[in-house]
Amino acid sequence: MVHHKAPPPAPEGAACAAAGCGCEAAARAVENGSPAFRRAVWIVLGLNAGMFALEVVQGQLAGSMALQADALDFAGDSATYGLSLFALTQSLSFRSKAALVKGVSLAIMGVYVLAAALWRTFVDGTPDAVTMGWVGALALSANVISALLLLRFRDGDANVRSVWLCSRNDAIGNVAVLCAAGVVAYTATKWADLFVAAIMASLFLSTASSIIRQARGELRLQAAA
Fold first, then answer.
1. What is the pLDDT of residue 181?
2. What is the DSSP string of 23-92?
């Protein structure tokens, strides 16, 4: 009787792959890339982490849930690149556990944004459209800079090439925030801000759920091996 060996558990990037977030191959590219590519990723990681902090703070000050939801995107990218860089010499078990932590963290933030957006529907007040506009524009610029830094290393490799897809998808969220800022300024109401926040947070909850399921599956495979 032939016994088929179970396939090895996928790395942390595979958890992102299940979510369809567009950055899973970028994580593998970090692992397989040259030292120069990894240095560029460190710069991109700094940009993403900085924008996450800025959008969280300015989102609170401006009363904008869309900015806080967009911050989730930067948080997710920071976690993806950061874990990929840190976990290069770690075990598959560590990487799967790190992915699980990432998924749970994103889920918590997504629930917070959704709950806060729901609460804001019953509270008077309009977000600061000017702050939404300049922070959204800065976030879009950060993603464009990230794409330009990383696209230098494309050279036909599908994994590295996927970094563009990741940055492109991030830019969609930035554009959504800018559109919401324009509608808020034109209508002097909060509804566009809350709508964009709810949509983005819902997408991140879906992503977090997929990451958690995939990471738990990897851990079960590792335990059975």
1. 96
2. -HHHHHHHHHS-HHHHHHHHHHHHHHHHHHHHHHHHHHHHT-HHHHHHHHHHHHHHHHHHHHHHGGGS-H
